[in-house]
Amino acid sequence: MPRVTEQYIQRRRQEILEAAGRCFARDGFHATSMDDVIDAAGVSTSVFYRWFRGKDELVIATVTDVLRGMVVVLDDILEVDPPPPLADAVERVLAATLTRMTRDGHDTTALAVQVWTEALRNPEIHQLIAHCYEQLRDRLAELIRRHQALGAIPAEVDPRMVARPLFSLFPGFVVQRLLLGPEDPKLYAQAAQALLRA
Amino acid sequence: MPRVTEQYIQRRRQEILEAAGRCFARDGFHATSMDDVIDAAGVSTSVFYRWFRGKDELVIATVTDVLRGMVVVLDDILEVDPPPPLADAVERVLAATLTRMTRDGHDTTALAVQVWTEALRNPEIHQLIAHCYEQLRDRLAELIRRHQALGAIPAEVDPRMVARPLFSLFPGFVVQRLLLGPEDPKLYAQAAQALLRA
User: Fold this and answer.
1) Closest-CA distance of chain A to residue B48, Å
2) Residue of A114, A158, A167 lying closest to B176 (CB–CB)
3) Which residues of chain B have pLDDT under 50?
């Protein structure tokens, strides 16, 4: 396949995912049809179905796209030695995810709470989120381990346990942002910094 | 009205709210009918409609019941001087709410994420949750203010800002408990204690 065509097709896939994110965030997973997404993405039906055979596949790809993005930010952070303060790491993940989910004036952060509700009745979505959340918590545990080595967090506590309240800063941010109004990742992280040891 | 009858009617109201919580948690707000709740509560239609004229009213009463319970725990904590560690306060709120939401072998914690999704499309529910969440954050800010007076948290930070990441420990607990498996408030709070200054 010539390189330009491959790039073109990849770009179309990303456009479909972003359109799907907008439709799902606005109308919910159940009220969104494939045709809604095809219209919003401005692609042909044949291009769409080359990538996604059904709605479940599209929902999974949309959610995976966001969550993988969060894991990648933490992987980058773990490359740095000494590790940044925990609140800085949280800020970078939130800022990157928020930039991605508020692109072009469309706010798709409502996807987060919709996907939690969906996970309660759809085992495949549940499994996907559980897997990605475990990955995020594993990365946070590794970051905590490094802060323990520096003496900033007590050595005797289990880093995987400490990763849980730290992880809470992500869903907590989104819930407060959606229900109580705009929330700035930088101010939120500064406040977390005042609260956290490391 | 004779006292015994008044007590009886109040108890029926609480039974209806608990039955509603079970139905909503299991089937969601939209898939639950008034008859489902009347059946689950084992009350007569006339007793039910004495309390709740419609589903919106029932949803609001069910959600208010849980959230008011959280505020009351924090009000009790604020009576104590010197203030308990922040992680202890979080544990007491979570433990009390979890006890209330897992009574008689029924786990209704899924209500939390369902109500977030519902708030995105129902302005009345949105307003109710925003109001209760503001109350919770106000109480946390007051607790933080007291820890600032003790020197445990930097005096120059705004306690209302610091209340935000602290508040995140509540939705973060519920999201992880629902999606990643059982979570014990005591272990979670111990881990938070290792993470927090105060």
Assistant:
1) 28
2) A167
3) none
